[in-house]
Amino acid sequence: MAECEAQPLEDIYQEHCDHNFDSADKIVTFILRLIVLAISIYSSVLVLLIIKNSQKKQFWPFKLIICQVLSECVDLLLALIFTINSSCWPKACKIIGYFMHSNWLASLIFMLFQCLIYFVLIRSEFLFNLIMKYLYIILAILYLIPHGFLLRVLLDGGFGPSGWYLLNGEFNFIFCGFINHQIVGFWIVPVSTLFFFSILFSVFNCIYWHRLQNKKELRYPALRIQSILLFPLVYFLAWLINFLIRLHDTDSSEQNYCPQDKMNFFFYIFYQVLNLGFELHLTLGAILFFYIYKGLFGMTSLCDWICLRKRKQGKQKKKLIYQDQSIQAIQLK
């Protein structure tokens, strides 16, 4: 232990790369990590395909959802590429960590922005129309903000190899993330703030959505506003659990990458499930998207959606009328 604490992080990381698959625990973790990332990417891509193949991608709620999901996909793809490379990419790990966290932060900003737009729509149609006029410019700025915000962390060497412990107490570098004290000011605080206001605006929207029900063209989305609250709640719960379980594992200034005592087997299973399963909250978000919007998109079966089956032609006239109404409803003009 004392010898490890005297070594720089780069040397410990290189030792990990030299003995990357020397235990069954590492191999199983590697395989499960690939599976979880693949499932999360697939479910996110399904959301994009559904919107792309519909006649509704030009409407603002789905433009925001597309931006959010694309940011999530960039984060997931970088994590997948890093994992496929056996988590041994010393020179690229810092830049990968930077872009992963920038896109993750961008996805949360887009989620907050969607909650904010509904809030603005309820309070002021003038401000809502002003936002719609410059929507693309605003979206571009929102995407670039986290990249500029986290650039200081990158330049200060705040991103690097991270991960979690194995059963035998060895640290397994399987991730690129924050590795110093900057995690508080540049991650915990901004992420907590984004979740707080997303939930706050969503609660307000749930309470006051009825102010829109007298506007005929807004009838359907007004009802859906109540469901938007589920997304920040689910994402916040997943982030909070992941943060708490890995809080002790992320600060390299405390030599937390050095070997620890062997874990209790049952706690280790719990520990691994929470670490490996974190990205699955995006899959849960995709399933929520299906159930909230399935009527609007004419989808009936979750299995058909997952398997990319095309919906049958020849819908009843009543169904077509409902879809026409839904198309008008989602415009929110």
UniProtKB/TrEMBL annotation:
Key word Transcription regulation present: no
Keywords assigned: Membrane, Transmembrane, Transmembrane helix
Chain segments annotated as transmembrane: 30-50, 62-84, 104-122, 134-155, 187-208, 228-245, 265-292
Stated name of the protein: G-protein coupled receptors family 2 profile 2 domain-containing protein
Source organism phylogeny: Eukaryota, Sar, Alveolata, Ciliophora, Intramacronucleata
Species name: Paramecium octaurelia
